[in-house]
Amino acid sequence: MRRTPMAYLWLTLGVLVFAFPIYMTLIGSTHDASTIGRGDVPLLPGPLGGENYANAWNGTGGGRIQGQPAGLMLANSLIMALCIAAGKIAISLLSAFAVVYFRFPGRMLAFWLIFITLMLPVEVRIIPTFQVMVDLSLTNSRAGLIVPLMASATATLLFRQFFLTIPREYVEAAKVDGAGPLRFFRDVVLPLSVTNIAALFVILFIYGWNQYLWPLLIINERSLETIVVGLTKMIGTGDSQNEWNIIMATAVMAMLPPVAVVVLMQRWFIKGLTETEK
């Protein structure tokens, strides 16, 4: 495809449109609250960046956000996102492996029941899921925050479709070598699935990090509050109640972990989405 200046121009404009709000948030986090409240935030960084980020991290900004350290909320979100991503991948790998390589009564029925859940929005399932957590006494707990989000019909479907592309000769060769199902899964299926796992990890980590409705519903303890929920609670009903410099500093810190995951795993992410030959 021939590269044209117009294509680069549109690409640059698109980057500016998406990046400018992030830039203004970064700049706003280095000024005082009164400057932001007046609406005259300059385009250059201010002198209070270190102080604002320290106050946001430790929850010492005062006002509405007193006692809500961003460091604790970031740790809660990180634990939740990592556990959700790892749990979804582990459960989906095993369930897809069972559907593809085992023959048992109701195998396809089980798969289609999993697949049908894709058609149900989260809001439809959230009330019965909450009731189950209440019955199991898992509300206001890390387990109640993470476990209901660990099953993934999407990841199961994607892994199933990939496993179907693995040549049957691999299965026959494993049987000849005397490998059982678990050894075949560990020595053949997992190594072939590395790029797919990496791509899904990025997607599922961001999914877990951005969760808002379920943590808001299941958690009342301030010590378990996630960064997304914490950010919304930091914003009051009127501008005079908000310390926008601390809020913006917290928002910048909230963006860093998912950005780091995408940047560090970019090569694996692209490879997992585009690679077709194994």
Task: Itemize the secondary structure elements and their pairings.
Layout: H1 5-28, H2 33-37, H3 49-58, H4 70-101, H5 107-116, H6 122-135, H7 142-146, H8 153-163, H9 168-176, H10 181-192, H11 194-209, H12 213-218, H13 227-234, H14 244-264, H15 266-274
Helix pairs in contact: 1-14, 3-14, 4-8, 4-11, 5-8, 11-15, 13-14
Structure at a glance:
The protein has 15 helices and no strands.
Query: Could you name the ranges where pLDDT drops below 50 across 5 or more consecutive residues?
Result: none
**How far is it from the N-terminal to the C-terminal residue, by CA?**
27 Å
CATH architecture call? Orthogonal Bundle
Cα-atom radius of gyration: 23 Å
C-alpha geometry: globular
Taken together, the total number of domains comes to: 1
Q: Which class do the helix and strand fractions yield?
A: mainly alpha
CATH class: Mainly Alpha
Specify the number of helices.
15
Q: At the fourth CATH level, what is the homologous superfamily?
A: MetI-like
User: Roughly what percent helix?
Assistant: 55-70%
Order of helices and strands: HHHHHHHHHHHHHHH
Mean pLDDT: 85
Report the count of strand segments. 0
The CATH topology comes to: MetI-like fold
Strand content: under 5%
Largest sheet: none
